[in-house]
Every structure is written in C-alpha cells, then in structure tokens.
C-alpha cells in the first residue's frame, strides 16, 4: 500500500487533488482512498489531504502517519509546517516552487506549478498541475488516467485546461 | 449495468436514495452530513431526479415532515448527525410508534459539549431505544447498498419500522473510494413503489393516525414494535440474501459479519469503519502467525444475540470496542450488551475514538495485547492522552 | 386487538360515546316558535342539533351535553331549559 | 329555501370536549366550509386529546397528530406527499386541502419555528390557529397569546401581580410578515364570516393563516352557554378585530356599529375578576390604541 500526503492551504484544492489522485489510481486498475485531514481549517490555513493506493481492497481507516510521498502545493508552507514529518526513509517529495533545488533531506522534485497554472488556467490554483508533476516524477499513475480523473472532476473547458496543465507539468518533470 | 465511481460515503448514500426513488426528502444540513443533501439537491436541480425536496428549518422539522409525508403514503428520506439527531429525538419515537418506514442516513458525530464535529457513535447509540432499526456500515459501498436494503426492510409489512443507516463521520463521509453503483432500473424493480396498506392519509378513506394512546392500548403498541424488531432479524437476513442474488454483494448474514473467526481464540467485536482497521491488523498479525478474529455488528438494533452467541462459541478472549460511553455505568453500550449476551464469558470493553480521536493500528494491537492478559471484566480507555 | 400504530380506521367512531349523560339542564326546542334560522344548528359544539326530513330542527339528546348555547342564542326564545331528572 | 349552512357533519358527536367548547364549534364550521377533500393536522392540545382517545375518533376526515411543536412541518410533509402522489396519478384534478388546526401554544409558542418555516417555503395549506389564549389542555398556563392582565395558573394575580404582564403576541401580523397570500382573523361567534374566510383560504394556492378566537369556558371562567356571547363581545369591543390581509391588502371585515366598552367583555370572565375599574381603563386604552392602528374607531 502506498500513502501520499498533500500539503496546501485552505482553498487551494489539496483535498480535490487527493481525490483526483484516488480516482486516477482507480482508472489504472488499483484500489484507492482519498480523504482530507479532518480539521476545521478555513480558507488560507495550512491543510492536509491523503491518498492511499493499493493492489488489493483498502480496509484501513486510520489517518496517514508515515507517507511514502509528500506533495506540497504552496512553497510558503515549507516555513510553516514540517512537511516531511513521518515521511518514510526512502520517501519522495514533490514541491511547487520556483527554486530549482531544495534540500529537505529526502529525494525532492521541484516544479513551478504556479507559473504553469497562471499560464494555462489564468489562476494560481495548482492542484491539477502538481498532480501532473507528481505523476511524471513518480510514475505511480498514468498520465492518461490522471487526465481522465481531472476531466471527471472539472466539466467542459475548465476540465480541458486543467488536464492540459497536468500534462505540461508531467512532461516538464519527466524531461528533467 | 453496474458502474464503479470513486465517491464519498455521503454521495453514496445520496445515490442510494435516488436509486430507491424516494418521493419526498426533508433535510437540514449539518456537518458531516451536508454533502448528502447537497448531492440530492443537485440531482433535482439538474432534472435527473424528480423528488420533492423540503428544505426545512431544523432537523426536528425534517423528521416531522418525513412523518407527514410517510403517513400520506410516499417513500421518504432524510439525513442528519449528532446535534441534529438529538434534536429529532422526540420525533424518532413518533416515526416508529406510527410504524412509518422512513429511512435516514446518520453520519455519526460526537455530541456537544464541547462542540465536536468528528466521529463517534454517541449520537445514534443514544437513540437505540427509539424503535428504529440501526445498520452500521463499514465502507461506502455498504452505505449505498444499506440505504437500498433499508427500504426493503422498513417497508416489509411484517416490519413497518424506520431504519437508520449509520456511517462514520469524515472517515466515510469525506473519503472517496471506489463504489459500485447498481443499475437504476434494477433497483427500482427490486424495491417497487411504496404503497402502504396499514395507513395513509386519504380523504377517500379517512383514518386517524397518532391518536391518544390511552393506558388500555399503549402497552400493546410497544409490544408490537418489540415483535416487529424480532421479526426484523429474519427479514434483514432474507434481504441480505435477496440483495446478493440480484446485486452480488452481501454483508455477513445481514446482522453480523465475521472475519477470521475460525480457530481464533481472541476476537474483537466492533461496529462501523474501525472494523476495516481491525481487519488490517488481523491480516498483519496473521503474517506473523497470530490468529485474531473480528465480529462486526452490522445491525445494532435489532441486536443479534443468538448469532453472536453462536459465532463466539468457544472463544476465550472477547474484546468489545465502543465509540461511545455510558456515564455512571462506565462501560460502552455495546460492551454492556455483549456482557448481557455472553453471560459466562470474560468481556473486556475498550472505549475508543471519541470525538474523532483516530483509532490507529497500534491502538488495535494494544487492545489485543491487553485482552490476552486481562483476566476479568474490565473497561479500558484506549488512545487517551496522559 | 390494538391496531398496528394505534390507527383508528372507523371515522367518527365517537358516536358510540353517548355524551347525553353529561347533561344537568336539558334544552327543549319548541318547533312552533322556531324560524329555522339555523343559529342553534351551527353553534352546537356537539353537532347534536339536526334537521329532520320535514325540515324541523331537533335536538339529539344522545349527545347534547346541555351547554345551553342554543337556548341562549336562539333569537325567538324557542329553546327553553329544564332541569334534567335521572 | 336555501340552507344557510352545509349539513354534512365531518366532526362526529360523542367527543369529550367540555360542554360549550369553542374549539368544537370552530372545527364544525371549518370542516363545513372546507368539505371532504381535506387532511387535518393537529398538534398536541385540547382538541387532539378530546377527539381521539383510542379506539375512537371524532374525525370523519383523514387526521394526524404527531407532537406539539411541529404542525407546520408535518403539514409541509403531507402537502409535498400529495404533490408526489399526483405525479403517480392519485388525486387527479382534486385540490386536497392540508389544514393544520393548532392551538395558540402550538402556534405562537412552541410551534412558531415550524410554522414560520412552512409559511416561508410557501406550502399550500390552510393553517388555523384556534386561540383560547392559554394552555388549556394542561390546566390554563399562560401562553404568549394570553392577553394582558388575564390570570393564568402560571400568571396568577397576587400582591405583586395583576396576572399576565405582557400583551398578546400578534400572530396574524407575524404570519403576514412572511408575505403569504392570505391572512385573516375570525371568531366562532361570526360563523358566516369565519366560513367565508376558510373557504377563501382553501381556494388560494399557497400558505394561508387564519387566527380564530375561541372562548373557553374553563380557562376563561364563564357559563358554557355564554361561549358565543363572549366571542361576540370580544369583537364588538374591538378587543379582537375581524380583518383579512389578501395579497398584502388589509381590510376590516366586520365593523361594529359602535364599539362597546371593554368592561362588558372583561366583567363576564373570571380570569379578569381581580381587576379594578382603573385596571380595566388601562386595558381599554390599550384596545383603543390598537383599534386606531387598524382603522377601527
């Protein structure tokens, strides 16, 4: 079983990201769970969300304490919370940042998801973009399934734009 | 054709209500139930579902409106949690007393004070004696299936009792996972249209519903409910099998579900989503050659005494997990009832997961370790901070 | 046998309960003075005043509780009252 | 000759109401006006208790009672169920009137929230508040409809009390504030006016509210034969003006030729017997002011 933790700020779509990832994994033929950290956070506050992926039915219902992957949607969170807390020793981090390199003590991928999102979506909502980067970096889910899950979540033109943002990020990180 | 979608427990319940073709919905939003009524509102707004949706001003009115609608002879649905369920309390007795087959989703949440929006079972356990059938689902699939089954059970002429489908707040309500959605036509064929024979408000056949229950009749009305609850055990089992025949899914025998019970000396008894985490731990222990079983209570009312006795025969260590407490008796409700059911056994009762306190695999392991050492009836709080 | 849900299937079944026994005073309607204004008919809390086939108003003493509203409201004093003797 | 009042009795005799009960008179009139296609909703109270002790019922129309505070919500559920049943072809081309008949306590106090919700949501119903100005079912405790200076068991007169210390809650105006199509007041002493209003309300689509004053022999303290007379005095003194508000338009429906002194009304009732002439003067002034406000000189 693989566990992924998303860090974002309320309103940035971290919960939606966790759910899209769960759906994409399902389209890849896996079992999955996607859920928020059950808090009372409002817009702007640091929030977490989780995805579990497995080849067999997932029955565990506790929260995630030792994730295999961490995805950071907002670079300012790096100063606010310990995003790598509990991360497994061989864990991987994907961070939205303009910096090319980050030393978090773990294998880390960086991507300027905000730049891509602004470019393609016109708004700094990075959840789909960073999912593209996550898929490209980890190859845990296919780009095709990710795009399908995104198109399920956002209807019409908005869906297409989001799928495109994910694809751009996917390719960018895969090429690096 | 069944279609699989990755959805939350609240969405699964809403889809269940839509598939069941409910005709009147009366509901008031409350965390963590809200998504259920939002999804239903959207179905109606989009023209996918032609139900009457009363956006009442309180949960008390939600249940009152469901009672009015059900008494007029239509299939009704509502959903609530916690304070909302508590506000309905008085009306719950009236729904069962009038023998109205209302189905309700309760998204389990702790009761105030202090205010807490997270999961425990205190809200629905508090309503255990209201004459409602209570089903506790373990995952989103079971949530959807149980809503459909609930109508079949509630509307059975031998039963005519309301049914509460309980799912763990946030843990199921806010978690997406793959859920197989039955074909609409198949469900509608299975359930048919609700056409009550015993009571419906109709000027062409004027009856009086909800009269003064004088001492000469009141006790009999209670005995009727008592008997219907007893019959419900059979009906729930039958519906579980019927459902399996048509939709290819079943949940134990409908009342209880065992896991790894064969040759298990130590068995945990629990309700709701924690059973998943227990299974997870059981599988891990099995790899290490340790045999622990799980007995999941699916219907807390009617309480499956006979089945429990049978399934726990020969088991030495019985640990009961309670996501609720009975202050003053200082046990959980399920623990107390297991003690009454298995009078000659050692029962250890564990108070866990109150107000959203996470129940982790290591909590479960701690329980098993304690249970194996424990020599007498004992209640222990697990996961309490020092 | 108590019905399921204590539902009462027989509309108007209180007719079995003869409330005439409650009376202390008995209203007596003098048909000759009656102008058929229907005042007593509409104000009777029991619906105990009825119109017979000939169009005359009568008091049904099975149900009349003897409130005497009819007597009080009758514009022609056609309804007098006598002490009930049992 | 035309009959003045319909002959069909949808409310059976043999009920356990007090001799001279005003609520029974109201129900007979309301059902004569509404006819058979009606579903009655009662909340807990006198009317519910004295008409339905199992296994007998006085009702010849479908009737339901659940609890005290939820008449509006139960009626809402029934109204929507009728809509749903119509989709199935039941009650074709028939207008079934949902008619909550609920006391002042169940309306103005404990049931106000459910009533407000039902009015605001626009359910098609004829809500009748039968007002006997206190909790008569439980022994004459004050409600928010109990008038100023009336005595009640929870507002008794005494050295430091003149009985109820607050004026009556203005329910029809509260109902009207919901912007519903029809609000009216009525009194059982004016049967034609009352029945006309009920009939009108039945025909109107949407929520309607009729506040009916209904004297109570036990709670108010008078001889049973005076039920109608006292109701008439309440109207003729201006204590309880009869009016309607139809689509926002206010209209007095009965204008007494000359308002009688309030004292005539007050002195007939034991619930006011502790009052001095000066106290009655205060009440008279209060009534005068309210009448002026409504354009009833």
TrEMBL record, chain A:
Annotated ranges, domain Pyruvate/ketoisovalerate oxidoreductase catalytic: 10-170
Pfam families: POR
Keywords: Oxidoreductase, Pyruvate
Gene Ontology MF term list: pyruvate synthase activity
Domain of life per record: Archaea
Enzyme Commission identifier(s): 1.2.7.1
Coiled-coil boundaries: none
Catalytic reaction equation(s): 2 oxidized [2Fe-2S]-[ferredoxin] + pyruvate + CoA = 2 reduced [2Fe-2S]-[ferredoxin] + acetyl-CoA + CO2 + H(+)
NCBIfam families in alphabetical order: PorC_KorC (TIGR02175), PorC_Meth_Thtga (NF040683), PRK08534.1 (NF006321)
Quaternary structure, from the entry: Heterotetramer of one alpha, one beta, one delta and one gamma chain.
Protein name: Pyruvate synthase subunit PorC
Species per Swiss-Prot/TrEMBL record: Methanothermococcus okinawensis
UniProtKB/TrEMBL annotation, chain B:
Pfam families cross-referenced by the UniProt entry: PFOR_II, POR_N
Domain Pyruvate:ferredoxin oxidoreductase core: start-end pairs: 264-364
Domain Pyruvate flavodoxin/ferredoxin oxidoreductase pyrimidine binding: 16-240
Enzyme nomenclature, EC number: 1.2.7.1
InterPro entries: PFOR_II, Pyruvate:ferred/Flavod_OxRd, Pyruvate_synthase_PorA, Pyrv_Fd/Flavodoxin_OxRdtase_N, THDP-binding, Transketo_C/PFOR_II
Reactions catalysed, as given in the entry: 2 oxidized [2Fe-2S]-[ferredoxin] + pyruvate + CoA = 2 reduced [2Fe-2S]-[ferredoxin] + acetyl-CoA + CO2 + H(+)
Gene Ontology biological-process annotations: response to oxidative stress
Key words, A-Z: Oxidoreductase, Pyruvate
MF term (GO), any: pyruvate synthase activity
Classification via NCBIfam families: PorA_Arch
Subunit structure: Heterotetramer of one alpha, one beta, one delta and one gamma chain.
Protein name: Pyruvate synthase subunit PorA
Gene, per the UniProt record: porA
Automatic annotation (TrEMBL), chain C:
Coiled coil: none
Cofactor(s) listed in the protein's UniProt record: [4Fe-4S] cluster
Record-annotated membrane-spanning stretches: none
Oligomeric and partner information: Heterotetramer of one alpha, one beta, one delta and one gamma chain.
Domain 4Fe-4S ferredoxin-type: from-to ranges: 25-54, 55-85
A Pfam match: Fer4_21
Keywords: 4Fe-4S, Electron transport, Iron, Iron-sulfur, Metal-binding, Repeat, Transport
Keyword field contains Calcium: no
Gene3D superfamilies reported in the protein's UniProt record: 3.30.70.20
Gene Ontology MF terms: 4 iron, 4 sulfur cluster binding; metal ion binding; oxidoreductase activity, acting on the aldehyde or oxo group of donors, iron-sulfur protein as acceptor
UniProt name for this protein: Pyruvate synthase subunit PorD
Keyword match Acyltransferase: no
UniProtKB/TrEMBL annotation, chain D:
Keyword Oxidoreductase: yes
Assigned keywords, A-Z: Oxidoreductase, Pyruvate
InterPro entries: PorB-like, THDP-binding, TPP_enzyme_TPP-bd
Spans annotated as Disordered: 148-168
EC numbers: 1.2.7.1
Gene Ontology molecular-function annotations: pyruvate synthase activity; thiamine pyrophosphate binding
Signal peptide: none
Ranges of residues in domain Thiamine pyrophosphate enzyme TPP-binding: 44-212
UniProt subunit comment: Heterotetramer of one alpha, one beta, one delta and one gamma chain.
Protein name per its UniProtKB record: Pyruvate synthase subunit beta
Gene source species: Methanothermococcus okinawensis
């Amino acid at each position: 079983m693989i566990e992924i933790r998303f860090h974002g700020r309320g309103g940035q779509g971290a919960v939606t990201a966790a759910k899209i990832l769960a759906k994409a994994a399902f389209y890849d033929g896996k079992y999955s769970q996607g859920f928020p950290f059950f808090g009372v956070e409002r817009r702007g506050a640091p929030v977490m969300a989780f995805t579990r992926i497995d080849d067999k039915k997932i029955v565990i219902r506790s929260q995630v304490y030792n994730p295999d992957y961490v995805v950071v949607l907002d670079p300012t969170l790096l100063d606010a919370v310990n995003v790598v807390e509990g991360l497994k020793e061989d864990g991987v981090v994907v961070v939205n940042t303009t910096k090319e390199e980050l030393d978090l003590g773990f294998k880390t991928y960086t991507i300027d998801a905000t730049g891509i999102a602004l470019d393609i979506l016109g708004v700094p909502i990075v959840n789909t973009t960073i999912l593209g980067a996550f898929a490209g970096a980890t190859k845990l889910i296919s780009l095709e399934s990710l795009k399908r899950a995104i198109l399920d979540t956002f209807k019409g033109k908005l869906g297409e734009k989001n799928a495109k943002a994910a694809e751009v990020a996917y390719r960018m990180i895969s090429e690096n | 054709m069944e279609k699989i979608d990755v959805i939350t427990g609240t969405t699964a319940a809403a889809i269940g209500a839509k598939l069941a073709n409910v005709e009147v919905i009366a509901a008031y939003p409350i965390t963590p139930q809200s998504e259920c009524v939002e999804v239903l509102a959207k179905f109606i707004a989009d023209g996918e579902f032609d139900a009457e949706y009363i956006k009442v001003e309180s949960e008390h009115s939600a249940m009152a409106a469901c009672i009015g609608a059900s008494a007029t002879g239509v299939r009704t649905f509502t959903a609530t949690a916690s304070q909302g369920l508590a506000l309905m309390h008085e009306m719950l007795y009236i729904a069962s007393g009038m023998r109205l087959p209302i189905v309700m989703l309760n998204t389990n949440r702790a009761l105030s004070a202090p205010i807490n929006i997270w999961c425990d079972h205190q809200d629905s356990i508090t309503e255990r004696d209201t004459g409602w059938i209570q089903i506790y689902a373990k995952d989103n699939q079971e949530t959807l299936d149980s809503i459909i089954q609930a109508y079949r059970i509630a509307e059975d002429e031998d039963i005519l009792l309301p049914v509460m489908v309980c799912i763990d707040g946030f843990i199921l309500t806010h978690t997406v996972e793959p859920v197989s959605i039955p074909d609409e036509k198949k469900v509608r064929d299975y359930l048919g249209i609700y056409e009550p024979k015993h009571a419906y408000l109709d000027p062409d056949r004027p009856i009086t519903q909800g009269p003064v229950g004088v001492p000469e009749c009141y006790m009999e009305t209670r005995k009727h409910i008592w008997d219907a609850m007893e019959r419900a055990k059979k009906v729930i089992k039958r519906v579980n099998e019927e459902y399996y025949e048509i939709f290819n899914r079943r949940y134990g025998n409908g009342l209880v579900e065992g896991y790894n019970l064969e040759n298990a000396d130590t068995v945990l008894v629990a309700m709701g989503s924690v059973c998943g985490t227990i299974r997870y731990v059981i599988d891990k222990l099995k790899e290490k050659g340790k045999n622990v079983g799980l007995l999941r209570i699916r219907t807390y009312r009617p309480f499956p005494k006979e089945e429990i006795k049978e399934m726990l025969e020969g088991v030495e260590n019985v640990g009961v997990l309670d996501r609720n407490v009975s202050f003053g008796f200082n046990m959980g409700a399920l623990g107390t009832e297991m003690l009454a059911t298995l009078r000659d056994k050692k029962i250890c009762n564990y108070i866990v997961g109150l107000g959203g306190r996470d129940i982790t695999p290591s909590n479960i392991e701690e329980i098993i370790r304690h249970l194996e050492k424990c020599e007498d009836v004992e209640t222990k709080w697990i996961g309490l901070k020092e | 046998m108590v019905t399921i849900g204590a539902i009462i299937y027989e509309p108007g079944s209180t007719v079995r309960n003869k409330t005439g026994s409650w009376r202390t005073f008995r209203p007596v309607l003098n048909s000759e003075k009656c102008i058929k204004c229907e005042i007593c008919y509409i104000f009777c809390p029991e619906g105990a005043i009825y119109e017979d086939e000939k169009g005359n108003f009568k008091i049904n003493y099975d149900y009349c509780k003897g409130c005497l509203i009819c007597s009080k409201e009758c514009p022609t004093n056609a309804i007098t009252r006598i002490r009930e003797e049992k | 000759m035309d009959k003045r009042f319909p002959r069909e009795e949808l409310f059976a005799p043999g009920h356990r109401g007090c001799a001279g009960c005003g609520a029974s008179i109201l129900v007979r009139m309301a059902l004569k006006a509404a006819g058979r296609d009606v579903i009655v909703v009662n909340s807990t109270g006198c009317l519910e208790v004295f008409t339905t002790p199992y296994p007998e019922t006085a009702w010849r129309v479908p009737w339901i009672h659940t609890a005290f505070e939820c008449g509006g919500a139960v009626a809402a559920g029934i109204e929507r169920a009728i809509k749903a049943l119509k989709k199935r072809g039941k009650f074709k081309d028939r207008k079934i009137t949902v008619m909550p008949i609920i006391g002042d306590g169940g309306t103005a106090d404990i049931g106000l929230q459910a009533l407000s919700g039902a009015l605001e949501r626009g359910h098609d119903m004829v809500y009748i508040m039968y007002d006997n100005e206190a909790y008569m079912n439980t022994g004459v405790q004050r409600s928010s409809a109990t008038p100023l200076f009336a005595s009640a068991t929870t507002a008794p007169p005494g050295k430091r009390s003149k009985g109820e210390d607050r004026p009556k809650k203005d329910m029809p105006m509260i109902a009207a504030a919901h912007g519903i199509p029809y609000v009216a007041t009525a009194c059982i002493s004016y049967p034609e006016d009352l029945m006309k209003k009920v009939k009108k309300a039945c025909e109107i689509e949407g929520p309607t509210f009729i506040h009916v004053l209904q004297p109570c022999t036990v709670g108010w303290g008078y001889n049973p034969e005076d039920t109608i007379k006292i109701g008439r005095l309440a109207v003729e003194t201006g204590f309880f003006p009869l009016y309607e508000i139809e689509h926002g338009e206010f209209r007095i429906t009965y204008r007494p030729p000359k308002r009688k002194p309030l004292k005539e009304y007050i002195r007939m009732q034991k619930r006011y017997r502790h009052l001095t002439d000066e106290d009655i003067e205060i009440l008279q002034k209060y009534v005068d002011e309210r009448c002026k406000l409504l354009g009833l000189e």
